Amino acid sequence: MPHVNGPFHRRLVPARPDLAAAHLRGRVAAERFAPGRPARVAPSLLDLTLDPNPTGERATQLLHGEVFVVYEERPDGLVWGQAQLDGYVGYVARDGLGPQRGAGRPVTAIWSQSYQRPSVQARVLGELPLLADVPVSGSTSGFARLRDGGHVPLPHLTPSAGDPVAQALRFVGAPYLWGGRSIRGIDCSGLVQIAHLACGVALPRDTDMQVELAGAPLPPDAALARGDLVFWRGHVALMIDGQTLIHANAHHMAVAVERLADVEERVLAARGGPVTARRRP
Predict the structure, then answer these.
(1) Which tens digits make up the pLDDT trace of 234-268?
(2) Prediction pTM value
(3) Where is the NlpC/P60 domain (predicted)?
(4) Residue among 131, 49, 135, 62 nearest 97 (CA)
């Protein structure tokens, strides 16, 4: 856990002046402490905001099946808590959470569906992003049978090969979405995080966290290699090789592959400044 008074504490430490997680008793000051109730994300994607405003700015998205620990239930239909996967703290809609259950299997397709029956012609019960957690109880006719009654194509749960760069390249053309974490919409740090999570590597969620905590810093004169991260103020990209990168960006409003030199020139021309850091996860 980050330091309770560190730079990311609002987003990573479940503590407010009036309420904090029970496991933080003695480490933070709060009027009361709550033990927390684990729940699972029910829809395909669930927006999380930093403030208790149902129409507020999306800070991140939770994926279907993610565990979210609830510390406060509010009369306005929101709950406050912490995502177990990356520690993100904030508010989500209460009706977007279902009961806790055991861990399932991750979806490895870039996007999938849960069918009513083990048939491609069956009615779709729900849609599933990459890394959604689904509770598999068996298999039938090429489909994984879920404990909730749905059926997911077995190829969509087959472990995928490749490094984080290969995973990121699957998102080329996906629309840019601030706070997004799926092929339906993703931002720069979300792309970097999801690409690594697909390979079993945990990274922080936001760019300012990644520039401080993701891997080790590279000296300015070090040659860049596949998988390195390059940072600008408020932006991060993933190197494909020493000269080419992939990033979700607001210039194209999409995930795109470009030459590093071209991005550096464009960002400087837009007064976004030079590269601020380079790191190797």
Answers:
(1) 999 999 999 999 999 999 999 999 999 999 999 99
(2) 0.95
(3) 158-281
(4) 62
